[in-house]
Write a structure and sequence with these properties.
Length: 496
């Protein structure tokens, strides 16, 4: 279940000239004011329907600088509190991405063990962000082959690999720019998604809204609380990006995160000699490089070297014996040339839209360097600095060939009330601890950081750390905000 919160959305095996719209603009109507709009409630789609969940749509401006211009549709879900005596308000949620649909997220959080006190305190709101899922969608007309490559660049063993992926990335960028939804390119951004959230808050009749966001959702939450400090209530950022969001440098953090997380698996596998991967963590690490090199030289294998590195990175998102066992069995099969173990069926999703949605946001949020040589230098650096995965994380992306953003990135600062709690695992492969620490410093006195001495991606109701879970629940339910940062030791799984 942790992979629902993947910052990457999909792990396939194989100069701004305008200022940001201020929070006092038409983007922040008070409940019941003209222009607020109303939610049109309807039955939930079949794959979203769950006990107690209702769905609806809201029209929002495509371009918030033209609030009376063209509108697009945003779809939401609501898991309403059934305890009016304890209900505090609404809890907006985001599962990560960008490109990740969120309509099912309230029900998923409940199934994962979201405490009843939280369900009593809030109507939990799921959102398919603009451009994604059942909200007005975007497309890049990606072919099946392009979709199969996923949305993380391939490992680049040589400069020629960067050149090859640059050509494919330029083609993808051109497809996005020429698609039938190209008019949405400049406006499918984190800032506009945050403005949509405040429209949802107003349409629900709430003067404030709380927020729980995971992975990329932490950047959305930071932008939301920066643009709308007066209408955000209690904010939780789980598995945090740095304050600049997913820019050209943030993707490189995957390389660092893999180095942080991999020792957990190496020690686990070394304690289980039946897999034959080594009896020490050093030997297991050596086996990784041995297998990667062997598969690089035999691309006809079911999993090649690029896919092997991607698969290993993806499986380290979770921190349970089942996921680590599957990873070890896959390594074992690749090592011995035997049949691969079956992988669980991935969740049903529109893969083309998910990848296109991610590209629209990360490429429009900030200006990316356009020189292919820039990425070659980064790949060479990170291949040495983060040898497990750095040469994939630093590789070029379609954003290098994107049109310039139409507004500057929202700056994350310490201006605002103290209401942002950051929850973070110490060894997260996708959003490493270093990013959360940067976010904490940028937010200053607005924030506190709760860390858990565990690995994997996702903390609250995911990592099973009772100390961290209790801190987040106490804040959401009772407003108990830590006076200082908190470091939680590894402990037994919380009772769910």
């Amino acid at each position: 279940m942790r992979k629902l919160l993947s910052l990457a959305v999909v792990m396939a095996a194989s100069t701004a000239t305008l200022t940001a719209v201020p929070a006092s603009s038409a983007a922040t109507p008070a409940p019941g004011s003209p222009g607020t709009g109303s939610i049109k409630w309807a039955d939930c789609p079949e794959d979203v329907a769950a006990d107690g969940v209702e769905c609806g749509t809201l029209d929002v401006p495509l371009d918030y600088k033209k609030p009376d211009g063209r509108t697009i549709e945003v779809m939401i879900s609501r898991l309403a509190s059934k305890n009016p005596d304890k209900r505090r308000g609404v809890l907006l949620t985001n599962p990560g991405g960008p490109g990740g649909a969120g309509l099912s997220f309230p029900a998923q959080l409940k199934a994962l063990g979201l405490p009843q006190d939280v369900l009593d305190s809030y109507d939990v709101i799921g959102v398919d962000p603009r451009g994604v899922g059942r909200s007005t969608p975007v497309t890049c007309d990606l072919t099946d082959e392009q979709q199969a490559k996923g949305n993380i660049p391939p490992y680049a063993a040589t400069e020629a690999d960067v050149d090859e992926w640059a050509a494919e990335s330029e083609k993808i960028a051109e497809q996005c720019a020429n698609s039938e939804t190209a008019d949405m390119l400049p406006h499918t951004t984190t800032a506009n998604t945050a403005r949509d959230l405040d429209r949802i808050r107003a349409a629900l009749g709430e003067r404030t809204a709380s927020f729980l966001g995971y992975s990329y959702g932490t950047h959305l939450g930071a932008v939301y609380s920066s643009l709308f400090p007066e209408t955000t209530d209690r904010v939780v950022l789980d598995s945090s990006l740095g304050p600049n969001g997913w820019d050209s440098e943030a993707g490189r953090d995957f390389g660092r995160g893999m180095e942080d997380r991999f020792p957990d698996f190496a020690e686990w596998a070394a304690e289980r000699p039946e897999f034959g991967l080594g009896t020490t963590a050093k030997q297991v690490r050596a086996k990784y490089f041995e297998l990667a090199e062997r598969l690089d030289e035999a691309p006809e294998q079911e999993i090649d070297g690029v896919g092997f590195r991607h698969m290993t990175f993806a499986q380290l998102y979770a921190d349970d014996d089942a996921s680590l066992t599957l990873l070890a069995k896959t390594w074992q099969a690749l090592d011995k040339g035997t049949e691969l173990p079956p992988f669980p069926e991935p969740p049903t999703m529109n893969l083309e839209n998910a990848i296109a949605g991610r590209l629209h946001v990360v490429c429009a949020d900030s200006r990316w360097p356009t020189s292919v040589d820039y990425y070659k230098r980064n790949v060479a650096t990170d291949r040495e600095r983060y040898p497990l995965y750095g040469a994939a994380a630093a590789n070029i992306q379609p954003c290098a060939f994107w049109q310039d953003p139409v507004e500057k990135p929202v700056e994350i600062t310490d201006e605002g009330k103290r209401n942002i709690l950051i929850a973070q695992n110490d060894r997260d492969p996708a959003t490493p601890l270093a990013g959360a620490q940067k976010m904490r410093r940028a937010l200053g006195d607005r924030a506190a950081l709760v860390t858990a001495d565990v690995g994997g991606h996702g903390t609250y109701v995911l990592a099973g750390n009772a100390c961290a879970d209790d801190r987040v629940t106490s804040y959401l339910v009772d407003g108990e905000f830590p006076s200082d940062d908190v470091a939680c030791e590894a402990d037994a799984p919380a009772d769910k």
